[in-house]
């Protein structure tokens, strides 16, 4: 029995093949994401060894995100041209070499250079989105890409597992990096052995069809809509990565926790920020991606606004003399808010990528790569800004003040863009909360 992908030129696909593509891609993305966020743990040890300030630490943990972001556009385009199976495998093998070489450097400047190579792990997302989307019809793409996006749980794997691995290595972060490099290389080999060429690329190979040119692939990037989607992803993904990297340091500095405890609490944020992405994809298929984006932004701005409240010392007169006390967000409340925030970010990430194969079915690699690039840049710039703000003004909650402003801008732009579309009465739009109907599909 086969399924037919009508939007792919009536390419027959066996259910077993598409499930294999989804499972192998998700596993590979999980490993890549764990590697991509490795500095959230080993970076704290490197910070202590080199005597770095928070700004330098922020730059160190963010540098891999820069490469992972910039590489997404090109990796996405190459996936459209040469197929995800080959590009994914080469990307993972190259990154594994870079991670291993990380253990050979000792100066801060060389750590930054090595971190650029480690960052190639983040480019895997653009490859996986283009590869997985080609196996599924439009009415199932939201769910499929949501399941694939659950690979973000790799951040939780690193935040939770890496501190224990570090302890097992006697505190030697080099051993952690070597283990990660070996695991990634093995994953690349297994992926190549167990995956298949996607149906569109397989058709191109057998029919001799010409691949789209680079200029043809980047044509949709001229549209403002692509950049609006990118801003959404700057928060739901970029800020997610930034907080996954920053929260261990935040818990250590703001609450005075030990690294193991800080890592586990950060994992409590990263975990729902990943595992509920499949739910977000399903909800986007059922209720519409715009509805899910409204829920995401409204809930997120409430959470970050509350988390923005700074720790404040008070001094009041008392019967026996002045009384000093401190008002801050209790740790239990703060952790609960990070879990809620991570959950809605997870839904939002799936909703953003639900839009792309619907609006740009023939340019998923390039458009998805650009949206991922901008989102990833959030993961690069935000940790640096978090560290710089902390060094300059000394208010730990300033990072959440900044996120509140970013979410408010994104929500406002989205709302007025939707209102403008309503007023234009575009015949392809069913309403403010649904994507246009394509081939009988709703939402």
Write a brief structural summary.
The protein has helices spanning 15-36, 39-50, 54-82, 84-102, 108-118, 124-133, 138-149, 154-168, 173-194, 199-207, 214-218, 224-255, 259-270, 272-275, 277-287, 289-307, 331-359, 364-393, 398-424; strands spanning 3-5, 11-13, 312-316, 323-327. With 443 residues, it is mainly alpha-helical. Strand 3 (312-316) and strand 4 (323-327) form a beta hairpin.
How would you explain this protein's 3D organization?
By secondary structure, this protein is mainly alpha-helical. The protein has a single domain, classed as Up-down Bundle (Growth Hormone, Chain: A). The protein has 19 helices and four strands. The chain has helices spanning 15-36, 39-50, 54-82, 84-102, 108-118, 124-133, 138-149, 154-168, 173-194, 199-207, 214-218, 224-255, 259-270, 272-275, 277-287, 289-307, 331-359, 364-393, 398-424, and strands at 3-5, 11-13, 312-316, 323-327. The strands form two sheets. A two-stranded antiparallel ribbon has the order 1-2. A two-stranded antiparallel ribbon has the order 3-4. Helix 1 packs antiparallel against helix 9 (173-194), helix 12 runs antiparallel to helix 17 and helix 16 runs antiparallel to helix 19 (398-424). It is globular and about 75 Å long. Mean pLDDT is 81; it is low at 6-10, 314-318, 428-432 and 435-443.
Can you tag this structure with a few keywords?
443 residues, mainly alpha, Growth Hormone, Chain: A, two-stranded antiparallel sheet, two-stranded antiparallel ribbon, 4 strands, disordered C terminus
